[in-house]
């Protein structure tokens, strides 16, 4: 009996020690994340500037949109879920006192929706100072194809933004100096771009998320090269690993373990929005183009992603994929 009590006590102490160490580790890591995370220090007001941000109903986009509304920008919330965006808009107006916020329907997975959105913007807006390509989707196993026959992740994360950039570029050139900001990801390092199969409808979507982020960076670098001298800059970023909606399509039981990691170790959406905000507003980026940022600082890219010949080829092939017309602006 005494021996059993002794073993039980030792087990209890061991569990308490392990729990203490685990909690301490998480707390220390949280402090580390808090200390090292980039913060946009710019106090710049955005009154008189028009900003479009895609996919701002949740996560990083929502926090970025709030910040820009708070700085006085005319904010165009380009969202797929219009009802959710309208509710959020009312909240932003109430909290920031900025009445210059509008919601427009945009489904980046549909070439038709991208064209309709751009057509409205070109008709109704007289300037566009900042275009933020924030919207993104990630699937794990479910393969999906859009109405245009494109693979869903690539269509939403890369081809929709590619077409949108073309259709809005004249307005941005007229408004120069203006900025294009692309939310990419460090996860690009796990992928590469197969130029012989740019519509990979049979590939695992989880991998295609990395590919789409690789494509975002190649696109931004080539865009910056093509826009040299126009007054329109293009930069991209990794926001960090964020506790946002992007993980929602991970199925159980994978999601159980993931949720512990996401809640315990990842940045908040507000922290995750800082680098996007920095690229959108900071004066120090006035003449910066073709760069990649992390934690509000310029960050190095892998050698392979900087291949200019591949980027040029990717661009030309993408023009066919999004069915760019001879009457559309060329970049
Ligand atoms: N979270 C991370 O750790 C992380 C890391 C690196 C990069 N990123 C990037 O950060 C960006 C923002 O993602 P998040 O983490 O904030 O995720 P999120 O909370 O899921 O937000 C994604 C946003 O994109 C919108 N969206 C999805 N599909 C769309 C479509 N077809 N058309 C228009 N909008 C669409 C969503 O709108 P609905 O409400 O309609 O779904 C939502 O507002 C993404 O580009 C993502 O790849 C995230």
Task: Describe the protein's architecture and organization.
Helix 4 (111-124) packs parallel to helix 5 and helix 6 packs across helix 10 (308-321). The protein has one domain (38-321): NAD(P)-binding Rossmann-like Domain (Rossmann fold, 3-Layer(aba) Sandwich), CATH 3.40.50.720. The protein is 48% helix and 11% strand. The protein has helices spanning 2-36, 59-70, 82-96, 111-124, 152-174, 205-226, 254-265, 269-272, 274-281, 308-321, and strands spanning 50-54, 74-79, 101-105, 130-133, 178-183, 232-238, 292-294, 297-298. Helix 5 links the parallel strand 4 and strand 5 (178-183). With 331 residues, the chain is of the alpha/beta class. Strands 3-2-1-4-5-6-7-8 form an eight-stranded mixed β-sheet, with helices on both faces. Bound molecules: NADP nicotinamide-adenine-dinucleotide phosphate (NAP). NADP nicotinamide-adenine-dinucleotide phosphate (NAP) binds next to helix 2.
List the helices and strands and how they pair.
Elements: H1 2-36, E1 50-54, H2 59-70, E2 74-79, H3 82-96, E3 101-105, H4 111-124, E4 130-133, H5 152-174, E5 178-183, H6 205-226, E6 232-238, H7 254-265, H8 269-272, H9 274-281, E7 292-294, E8 297-298, H10 308-321
Parallel strand pairs: 1-2, 1-4, 2-3, 4-5, 5-6, 6-7
Antiparallel strand pairs: 7-8
Helix pairs in contact: 2-3, 4-5, 5-6, 6-10
């Amino acid at each position: 009996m005494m021996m059993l009590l002794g073993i039980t006590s030792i087990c209890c102490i061991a569990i308490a020690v392990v729990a203490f160490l685990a909690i301490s580790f998480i707390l220390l890591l949280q402090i580390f994340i808090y200390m090292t995370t980039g913060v946009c220090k710019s106090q710049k007001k955005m009154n008189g500037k028009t900003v479009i941000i895609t996919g701002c109903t949740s996560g990083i986009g929502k926090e970025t949109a709030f910040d820009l509304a708070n700085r006085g920008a005319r904010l165009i919330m380009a969202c797929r879920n219009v009802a959710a965006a309208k509710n959020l808009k009312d909240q932003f107006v109430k909290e920031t006192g900025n009445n210059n916020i509008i919601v427009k329907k945009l489904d980046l997975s549909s070439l038709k929706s991208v064209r309709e959105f751009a057509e409205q913007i070109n008709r109704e807006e007289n300037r566009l100072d900042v275009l933020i390509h924030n919207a993104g989707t990630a699937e794990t196993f479910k393969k999906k194809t859009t109405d245009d026959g494109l693979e869903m992740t690539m269509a939403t994360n890369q081809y929709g933004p590619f077409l949108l950039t073309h259709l809005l570029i004249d307005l941005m050139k007229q408004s120069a100096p203006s900025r294009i900001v692309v939310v990419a990801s460090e996860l690009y390092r796990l992928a590469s771009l197969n130029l012989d199969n740019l519509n990979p409808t049979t590939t695992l979507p989880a991998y295609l998320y990395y590919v789409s982020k690789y494509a975002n960076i190649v696109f931004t670098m080539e865009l910056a090269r093509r826009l040299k001298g126009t007054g329109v800059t293009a930069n991209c970023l990794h926001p960090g690993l964020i506790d946002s909606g992007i993980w929602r399509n991970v199925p159980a039981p994978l999601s159980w373990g993931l949720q512990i990691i996401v809640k315990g170790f990842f940045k908040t959406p507000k922290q995750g929005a800082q680098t996007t905000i920095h690229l959108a507003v900071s004066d120090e980026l006035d003449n910066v183009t073709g760069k990649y940022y992390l934690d509000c600082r310029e960050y190095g890219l892998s050698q392979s992603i900087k291949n200019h010949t591949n980027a040029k080829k990717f661009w030309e092939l993408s023009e066919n994929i999004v069915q760019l017309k001879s009457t559309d602006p060329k970049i």
